[in-house]
Design a protein that fits this description.
Layout (H helix, E strand, L loop, with lengths): L2 H10 L3 H9 L8 H14 L10
Helix pairs in contact: 1-2, 1-3, 2-3
């Protein structure tokens, strides 16, 4: 299973922090646009607009 497939499974299970941790461990220059998209999606899903800074 590649990283994007794993991210998809984590996303289905609402495990957004796992996605963020895994993708941020990959240097930015080595991430694909698809990886960056999954990272952004996880950050958006984890965000809480009712809290200062938006994070849980």
């Amino acid at each position: 299973m590649d990283i994007l497939q794993q991210c998809q499974k984590w996303n289905e299970n609402d495990e957004y922090q796992k996605i963020i941790d895994a993708l941020e461990a990959i240097p930015a220059k080595e991430r694909t646009p698809e990886m960056d998209s999954e990272l952004a999606r996880a950050c958006n899903n984890l965000a809480d607009p009712t809290k200062p800074g938006g994070w849980m």
